[in-house]
Structure formats: C-alpha cells, structure tokens
C-alpha cells in the first residue's frame, strides 16, 4: 500500500516504521507502524520506560524520529516546520504547564492571541472553552492556577489545548496527577467531549484500566519500545497476542472484558412469565456487562430487568452475560 496516498479513508495519523534511538544509544522506540483513524481515541499503554512518551512526542516533533515517516491527514510531516506543525496539534501533559502568574482566562487566551485574534474575541473564546470543559467562567476565569484543584487545573489544560481547535490532541498521562474518583470523572467528561467534538486523540497512560476504558483501540508497548499489540479493548483482553500482553493485561482480564462489553437486546430473554419476585431492580440497556453483573450480584436474584428508557425490554440472566461476552468477539 502506498503510504503517501491521501484521500477518503486515510488515517488522520500514520506512523510508518517510526523509531527512536537516543544519542547515548538507548533504543526508546523500535520501528512502529500505527494508524489512527479520524475521530478515534487511541491509548498507548505499557510499563515505565517502554517508549510511550517518546512515540507521542515524535508525532508533534518535540522529539525527532531516527527512522520512519509520520503522516498527518495524508501529509508527510517528517520534514514540516515543527513550530507550524505543533500549532495544529493540541498537547496536554500531566503537569498541565499553566503559567502560574497568569489568571486562568489569560492562560487559555494565549493560544487565540497567538493566532492573531483580537483581545475581545480571544477572551470570549477562552470563556466558551472553560465552559466546555465544565468550569464556570464567572467563577474561575480570574483565579490563578494555585487557586484551583488538580482536577480543575487539568481541565484548564484541556481547554487550552482545544483553543486552537486542532483536529488532533496528544495527551501524556493527562489524568495521572489526580485521585481515583476525580480521575474517573475526568475520564468520563473527556470521553463525552471527544465524542461531541470529534477530535482524533492519542493518549499515553500506564494504567491498563484507563486504556481499555477510554481507547477505541489500544497500543500495548513492551520493553525496548516494541509495539506488542494494537487492537480494540475487546480483542486485546480476549486474545492477547503474546505472553507479555497476557501478563500486562493481567489474570483478571476476564473481569476487565465485562467493563468494556456493552449489553445488547439480543442477550436478553423475554419478560413473559417472569414473576416479580424473581426479578432484581432494573438496569438500563446502555449498561456495561460489569454494571449488569454487579446489579445481579447485589440483588441476589436469578435475573434482572432491563429497560430502554421507560420501556422494559427483557431480562438478563448470568447465562446471558456469558453469551454476551462470547459474542462480543464476533
Ligand atoms: N533524552 C534521552 N536520552 C536518552 N534516553 C532517553 C531520553 N529520553 C528518554 N530516554 C529513554 O528512552 C526510553 C523510553 O522513554 P519514554 O519516556 O518514552 O518511556 P515511557 O514509556 O513514556 O515511560 P514512563 O511511563 O516512565 O513515562 C527509556 O528507557 C528512557 O530512559
């Protein structure tokens, strides 16, 4: 296949044989091939030092690859001007990198101002973006970074990365510095935002749960910068490519599969003839299998009712959960 061909169906990001050997001889990334479709969220995951950040930073040329080529929307960017390139790619890092002595609004306005917007337009845009990431501009715009919680600062980082309206966002451990509860909430919010805005996202994490929860596809890196597997969460958990991946996703990967497998109407049984006493409290059809199984166990009933909005659509039994898991791979 001609990797330079552009056109419909072309990936938004393509890494073709991209590798990095640092000057001291460290092979951080072996030759990696990786396509990311437009609007897709891809998570790079793996143990410490396996080359995830290096791979991410090669996409916006903060680090120069030593081999291979990188295509953005069909264009070879390996020789592009790195500064120009970075303007079209949002970048979010764990430490957020806000200017400590500037108010939140000014931190976000930096980017539209850089693009030559007037102060008034930049301010308006920054306020909209704060609102988009769930921070009330009336309350937060005039604060300084140290007057915000870690999770709030992280949202400002996302707002600033969105300010140039880039089609692509790169995120390096964006939710790493916050506690687990805030982390889950930020993950949920960000997934909703990404779906709404249709951004193409590459996100680095060392947390396999975060990766399979958020990624449409997940790239698992192994020591020495080897791409061990690139697959959907369901494929990855059900069919690890090798022992390293199997070990990394863990012996409880069956449970992880429950979290990433949606419930479907075809896995339900009809309501007919079911007496109220056999039925646990109802769950929504858009639940994951994990939520469904948790509800079954909680109610200690042989089956649970499933609703689509206000309408009962059937009952789920443990056998239905099992069938759903098996069929999720077809
Ligand atoms: N400037 C550098 N010079 C030499 N080696 C480097 C340099 N930067 C990173 N490395 C090495 O390259 C390898 C990959 O580093 P990288 O930061 O990409 O890993 P990572 O998977 O993101 O790790 P972590 O999860 O710990 O952040 C590591 O062995 C690291 O020590």
UniProtKB/TrEMBL annotation:
GO molecular function annotations of the record: ABC-type quaternary ammonium compound transporting activity; ATP binding; ATP hydrolysis activity
Superkingdom, natural source: Bacteria
SMART domains linked to this entry: AAA
Keywords attached to this entry: ATP-binding, Nucleotide-binding, Transport
EC number(s) recorded for this UniProt protein: 7.6.2.9
Keyword presence, ATP-binding: yes
Domain ABC transporter per the UniProt entry, residue ranges: 13-249
Keyword Transcription in record: no
Cross-referenced Gene3D superfamilies: P-loop containing nucleotide triphosphate hydrolases (3.40.50.300)
Entry similarity comment: Belongs to the ABC transporter superfamily.
Protein name per UniProt: ABC-type quaternary amine transporter
Source organism per UniProt: Nocardioides seonyuensis
């Amino acid at each position: 296949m001609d990797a330079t061909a552009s056109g419909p169906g072309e990936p938004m990001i393509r890494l073709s044989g991209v590798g990095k050997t640092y000057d001291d001889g460290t092979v951080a990334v072996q030759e990696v091939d990786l396509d990311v479709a437009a609007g897709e969220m891809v998570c790079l995951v793996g143990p410490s030092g396996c080359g995830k950040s290096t791979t991410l930073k090669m996409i916006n040329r903060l680090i120069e690859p030593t081999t291979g080529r990188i295509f953005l929307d069909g264009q070879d960017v390996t020789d592009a001007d790195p500064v120009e390139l970075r303007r079209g790619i949002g970048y979010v890092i764990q430490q957020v990198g806000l200017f400590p002595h500037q108010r939140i609004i000014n931190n976000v306005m930096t980017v539209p101002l850089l693009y030559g917007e007037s102060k008034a337009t930049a301010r308006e845009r920054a306020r909209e973006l704060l609102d988009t990431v769930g921070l009330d501009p009336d309350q937060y715009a005039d604060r300084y970074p140290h007057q915000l919680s870690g999770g709030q600062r992280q949202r400002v980082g996302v707002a600033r990365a969105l300010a140039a309206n880039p089609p692509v966002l790169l995120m390096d451990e964006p939710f790493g510095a916050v506690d687990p509860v805030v982390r889950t909430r930020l993950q949920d919010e960000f997934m909703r935002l990404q779906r709404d805005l249709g951004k193409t996202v590459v996100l680095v994490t060392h947390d396999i749960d975060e990766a399979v929860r958020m990624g449409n596809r997940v790239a698992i890196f192994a020591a020495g910068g080897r791409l061990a597997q690139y697959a959907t969460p369901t494929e990855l958990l059900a069919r690890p490519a090798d022992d390293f991946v199997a070990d990394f996703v863990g012996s409880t990967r069956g449970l992880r599969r429950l979290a990433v497998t949606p419930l479907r109407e075809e896995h339900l049984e009809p309501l007919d003839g079911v007496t109220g006493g056999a039925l646990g409290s109802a769950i929504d059809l858009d639940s994951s299998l994990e939520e469904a199984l948790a509800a079954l166990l909680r109610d200690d009933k042989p089956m649970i009712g499933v609703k689509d909005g206000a309408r009962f659509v059937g009952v789920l039994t443990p056998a239905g959960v099992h069938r759903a898991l098996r069929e999720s791979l077809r």
